[in-house]
Specification:
The chain is an all-alpha fold and about 90 residues long. Helices cover about 55% and strands about 0% of the residues. The N terminus is likely disordered.
């Protein structure tokens, strides 16, 4: 099947900003609002989950053990490379 010559051009055009993304936060920043660090937000979520009863939600791991071991190995290799590069 022949590919349309218009597809790449259509995909390369920026999408219009619709809905919520049309709002500007300039006024909020101008009046002193600031974003908090990602680490602070992440820790709040971890503390929240830690505060829940153990059976508050059912944890399921969708990764197969073979996939998880490859992901962990790749992460460890990356950390080791970063240590060697620094």
């Amino acid at each position: 099947m022949a590919q349309s010559s218009q597809a790449p051009e259509q995909l390369s055009k920026p999408l219009p900003r619709l809905g919520f993304f049309q709002l500007s936060s300039k006024k909020a920043f101008d009046s002193g609002w600031s974003q908090r660090p990602f680490t602070e937000t992440a820790l709040d979520y971890l503390w929240y989950f830690d505060s829940l009863e153990p059976n508050a939600f059912r944890w399921t791991d969708a990764l197969l053990p073979e996939v998880e071991s490859r992901v962990v190995k790749a992460w460890v290799d990356l950390q080791n490379k970063r240590r060697l590069d620094s």
